[in-house]
Amino acid sequence: MTNSFDPVILPPVYSYGFTGGPSFDTRVVRMDGGGEQRVQVQQEPIWRWSATRENVSSIAGADPEGIRDWFLARRGALYGFLFIDPFDFQMPDTEIIGYGDGATTVFPFRKKYDDPGNLSGRRFSRRIVPLTGIASEAEAALLGVATGADISPTVRVNGSPAGHTVSQARGEVRFDSPPATDAIITAGGFFCVPVRFEESTDQGLDISIDSFEGSSVSFGLVSIPFDDPAPVVVGGSPYGYKDVDLGSSGGVIQLDGR
After folding, report:
1. Phi and psi angles of residue 231, each rounded to the nearest 5 degrees, phi first
2. HSE-up of 27 (CA within 13 Å, CB side)?
3. Which of 236, 194, 47 is nearest to 108 (CA)?
4. 33-55: buried (b, 16+ CB within 10 Å) or exposed (e) per residue?
5. 45 and 24 in contact (C-beta within 8 Å)?
6. For the whole prediction, is pTM greater than 0.85?
7. Which residues lie closer than 8 Å to 246 by C-beta, 6 or more apart?
8. Which of 79, 76, 66 is closest to 233 using CA atoms?
9. Which range has the worst mean pLDDT, 31-40, 56-65, 215-224, 242-251?
10. Is 137 helix (H, G, I), strand (E, B) or coil?
11. Would you list the DSSP string of 69-131?
């Protein structure tokens, strides 16, 4: 059983200082003759990030109490949330997210990672949630845009704008009319990803400033699998599932508006 994730973004001020990235689970069996057999346990990489003292700073406006409150509201690792990966938060305007068939109107946002060796079978498609609306000061600093800039995704059909609605909560675009057969649907812009706290964090979140001495790690985040359901009602994850509409602005709720 899974508990989905809350459609709220960890305030961008906490993204500074995280270290981490993708990892795989590969079992290597060594043979008597010196060879080896490698077995891929999971097809998708799992992203993991670890926080350091840089994540909590009075100068940056990211205080320990905020992380404590966030941890309590998510029930530790039980309910996920959204996170702007400071190392990977943008897809180009030419990112292909699907092809029209004359009937389909909904296409999920995805970021593709191509193999520099040109082996198409080694490409990976990552689940993402687009950022929309107007960039706050903290978002602008992290994304490298001007405060107040429109960071909504650019969506096109065969290179031209088409009527559509972006569902940030579900991470998809819905067109007013189905794109024609073989039409190329592209999307570009900034994104965040669904994550949760590492299980080890459930054993206790040390929020004291003293825990950030040296390079000590206070808490960790891990990506959520593709098959997790769409977000539950805002602020109501313990009370049941239902689709949510975050409004025409498309803005994901942020802690204290940061």
Report:
1. -60, 155
2. 5
3. 194
4. eeeeeeeeeeebeebbbbbbbbb
5. yes
6. no
7. 7, 168, 169, 234, 252, 253
8. 79
9. 242-251
10. helix
11. HHHHHTTTTTSEEEE--TT--EEEEEEEEEE--SS--EEE-EEEE--TT--GGG-EEEE-EE-
Q: Would you place residue 151 in the very low, low, confident or very high pLDDT band (cuts 50, 70, 90)?
A: very high
User: Which one-letter DSSP state was computed for residue 14?
Assistant: G
Measured distance CA(195)–CA(49) in Å, rounded: 10
Q: What sign results for the dihedral spanned by CA atoms 171, 176, 179, 184?
A: negative
Q: Which residue has the tokens 């080896």?
A: 36
Extract long-range pairs of 66-72: CB within 8 Å, 24+ residues apart: 66/11, 66/14, 66/255, 66/256, 67/14, 67/205, 67/207, 67/219, 68/205, 68/207, 69/255, 70/10, 70/255, 71/197, 71/201, 71/205, 71/219
Range of weakest confidence among 9-23, 195-209, 231-245? 231-245
Distance CA 26, CA 5 (A): 27
Do the bridges between strand 124-127 and strand 220-223 make them parallel or antiparallel, or are there none, so unpaired? unpaired
